[in-house]
Amino acid sequence: xxxxxxxxxxxxxxxxxxxxxxxxxxxxxxxxxxxxxxxxxxxxxxxxxxxxxxxxxxxxxxxxxxxxxxxxxxxxxxxxxxxxxxxxxxxxxxxxxxxxxxxxxxxxxxxxxxxxxxxxxxxxxxxxxxxxxxxxxxxxxxxxxxxxxxxxxxxxxxxxxxxxxxxxxxxxxxxxxxxxxxxxxxxxxxxxxxxxxxxxxxxxxxxxxxxxxxxxxxxxxxxxxxxxxxxxxxxxxxxxxxxxxxxxxxxxxxxxxxxxxxxxxxxxxxxxxxxxxxxxxxxxxxxxxxxxxxxxxxxxxxxxxxxxxxxxxxxxxxxxxxxxxxxxxxxxxxxxxxxxxxxxxxxx
Length: 348
Known about the structure:
CATH architecture of the largest domain: Orthogonal Bundle
Radius of gyration: 29 Å
Largest sheet: none
CATH topology of the largest domain: Annexin V, domain 1
Number of domains: 3
Number of strands: 0
């Protein structure tokens, strides 16, 4: 049965192109693109336009091929005649200028004009530093915090949950089980409120908190330097020193903070000669780490490494420390990529 016959059967004549309004033509283009499987990000449009589009499509039924071709030709002609387009609204302009104007200027512009968030707030939230999200989880209501955790990547949510005190983490974990009945509109409003709240916070000169910065520096410092600095910090501020110790991740921390199932991922990223040097140089208290790594491998591979360690003989402390640092660096890179998750460790 032809399209024309089908339309006649339902008593709905085809609409000629000249009789179509601009909104109807827009609905035709959207319908055509969706039928062709083109992904359209219509959620970025103002809600009034989204509503109008849905209403317009609900009132239309059929158009013939000639009309369709005419609408498409007109659409293509208008697109090709555009030489340059500018983003709509303040947020669009600031997005285009991102990286070219200073953060302080952006903050002043938003403060002067008033912040009016457009687009998907959860995409913006997902791109923020986790330290900023942690404050929301600590200060907001359990219900709001549970929605936030539910909208984040699993690896990010797990990392944040591990940084919260035990009682708070347990409350949020339970609250997540109750988010199934939350309506999409409510989730959207929560996202916008969090995005606006975080945007209102003043820009920081450093991306990481002091504890993380000191811990990162000491991670790659020689053991003697690290011990000396921590001893000095104990004298100046014992509480800060304890927080820094928790932020430090060294070769000795591997058994407590790395899941044994993730060891093969690490060893694949480390040069075999470096791995043998690190394991052979892990003497005294560090033997525990060497045995942990070997125990997480297949027996054949572990026996092969033990043989190579024996052939290598005594390792210079400097060479051993450099090799161990390379293994720690590999673990940190895998953690940053979301391929491994470091455990919180136990408080001493």
